[in-house]
Structure formats: C-alpha cells, structure tokens
C-alpha cells in the first residue's frame, strides 16, 4: 500500500501551476472585459479552479496508471510513479483518477447549469482527452499529439472558459492570455518529454520530442517560453499596465538556462519547476495589470 506521501507525490503537485495559472489569467481577462470586480462572478471562478485542479490531478493519476501498466515507467528519471514503482495497485491509481475526474465533472456541471448547457459537452471532451492521452489502445500522447492537447485544454479552453463563466463573454484579451498560458503550459510538457527522450524511445512512446530530436525540441521549448513575453507586449494595446508581465523574464531565463546549456536527464528537472513558476507568475502579473487597466 502506498503511503500518503507517495500518493501526494504521485499526484505531482508541481504541475498545479498548469491548473491555477489559466484560471488566474481568465479571471484577469474577465475583470478587464467586465470593467471591474463587481462584474465577475467569483463563486464561478472558484468552481473553475476546482475543475482545473481536479482534472490535472486526474490526468496525472491516469497517466501514472496507463504508462505503468504498459511498462513505460520502468526506467523513470523524473518524479516517482505509483504503478511503475510498485507502490500502489494499478486499480487503486485508476480509481483515484476517476474520482478526480468525478469531482471536476460535478463542479463543471454546476457551472454548466448556471451558465450554458453546452459546457457539459466541453467537459466530456476534456475528460476524454485526459484519459486517452495515455489510455486506451491507441493513446494520442504516444503519437506526438500531447502538446496540441495541452495547448488546447490548459490554454484555450481553461482561460477562455474561465473568462466566459465568470463574465459571460470572451474577447481578444482573453484569447491572447489563452495563447500565452497555453504556450508556456505546453513548454512544461516539452521539457518533460525532452528529458525522457531516451526512455520513451526505448519503450516505443513516440512523443513530439522523440520525433523532433534533441536539438529541435530544445528550440521549440525556448520558442514557447518567448510567447508570454510577446503576449505582454500585445496586451499593452489594451492597457499599458500589461507590460508588467515582462517582469517574468528572469524566471523564464532560469527555466531556459539548463535547456540552453544542453542539460540532460535529471539536469532538466529544474527547468520543469521553473517553467511552472514562470507560468503562474506571468498569469498573476497579467491578471493584476488587466484589473488595474
């Protein structure tokens, strides 16, 4: 039986910025679109955060289960996996994934009932995307499509969805925020897969990093990190306060440094954490800027 500490590690709390950042950015866009805090439905923002956190923990457990039973995690460089390490039964990890999806689905259903019923369909697509990333007979994460899914679900859907449920509208400001958050969230997956190129190649997991190779994957990662900085400049057209987002540049540099210095394996783990922090910092700074604007 896995210990509580191992379950927490299996949930991969370092990925929580991928869930929190899009909600923060979406609320910031909603504040700007609505004109002030009184125009934002704050309890819906809280529910959106519950959905995002529940789904990302569910994704982590689902990946743990699916990769574990396939043997993909037998030679793991990064954080421990519950199934791959033998710490927990596969059935228990699978159940934990679906409990998390259930919590997210309930919170999402409340948002759908009080906002728009088509959100139910969107939520179902999100759950299916989470499970079939590494689950099922032909997981799309094994064919180099994981980055597209992350950009879509943790960028476009999460940011614009939050803006919509909290303010009743979406606009170009929200779209720019969604592209920025989606890009840096994708960068987290890119550097993770960069680290795992040797083990993924051996296990037959053909990620985008495996397809591109080491050098081009590093270039893709750096390019994705530049998007939030460009987004801050674009958002300056809405309010000059958005240039505050450029203050995240030192954190982005810390994230990029190991990649630019050709680090491999465990040497890339600091980039994972720093990328998540950069995403959260940019989202907070931008949300504050849009609120002021």
Report low-confidence residues grouped into runs of 5 or more.
none
Mean pLDDT: 92
How many DSSP H or I helices?
12
Domains, number = 1
Percent helix: over 70%
Strand content: under 5%
Radius of gyration: 19 Å
Please give the largest β-sheet: none
Write down the secondary-structure element order.
HHHHHHHHHHHH
Distance between the termini: 52 Å
Structure summary, number of beta strands: 0
Overall spatial form: globular
Q: Indicate the structural class.
A: mainly alpha
Catalytic activity: an all-trans-polyprenyl diphosphate + 1,4-dihydroxy-2-naphthoate + H(+) = a 2-demethylmenaquinol + CO2 + diphosphate
EC number: 2.5.1.74
Protein name: 1,4-dihydroxy-2-naphthoate octaprenyltransferase
Subcellular location: Cell membrane; Membrane
Task: Please describe the topology of this protein.
Blueprint: H1 4-10, H2 17-34, H3 42-70, H4 90-114, H5 118-131, H6 146-167, H7 172-195, H8 197-203, H9 208-212, H10 214-235, H11 249-260, H12 269-292
């Amino acid at each position: 039986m896995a210990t509580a500490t191992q379950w927490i590690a299996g949930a991969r709390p370092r990925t929580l910025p991928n869930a929190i950042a899009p909600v923060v950015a979406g609320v910031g866009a909603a504040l700007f679109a609505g004109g002030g805090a009184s125009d934002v439905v704050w309890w819906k923002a809280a529910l959106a955060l519950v959905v995002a956190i529940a789904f990302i923990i569910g994704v982590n457990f689902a990946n743990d289960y699916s990769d574990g039973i396939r043997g993909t995690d037998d030679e793991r460089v990064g954080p421990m996996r519950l199934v791959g390490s033998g710490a927990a039964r596969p059935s228990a990890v699978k159940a934990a994934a679906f409990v998390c999806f259930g919590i997210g689905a309930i919170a999402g259903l409340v948002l759908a009932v009080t906002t728009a019923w088509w959100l139910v369909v969107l939520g179902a697509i999100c759950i299916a995307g989470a499970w079939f990333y590494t689950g099922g007979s032909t997981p799309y994460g094994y064919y180099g499509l994981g980055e597209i899914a992350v950009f879509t679900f943790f960028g476009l859907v999460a940011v614009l969805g939050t803006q919509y449920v909290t303010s009743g509208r979406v606009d170009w400001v929200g779209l720019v925020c969604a592209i920025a958050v989606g890009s840096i969230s994708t960068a987290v997956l890119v550097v993770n897969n960069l680290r795992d190129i040797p083990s993924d190649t051996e296990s037959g997991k053909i990620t985008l990093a495996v397809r591109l190779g080491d050098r081009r994957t590093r270039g893709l990662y750096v390019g994705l990190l530049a998007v939030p900085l460009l987004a801050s400049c674009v958002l300056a057209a809405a309010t000059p306060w958005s240039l505050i987002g450029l203050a995240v540049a030192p954190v982005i540099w810390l994230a990029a440094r190991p990649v630019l210095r050709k680090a491999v394996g465990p040497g890339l783990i600091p980039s994972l954490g720093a990328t998540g922090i950069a995403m959260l910092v940019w989202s907070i700074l931008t949300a504050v800027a849009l609120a002021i604007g």
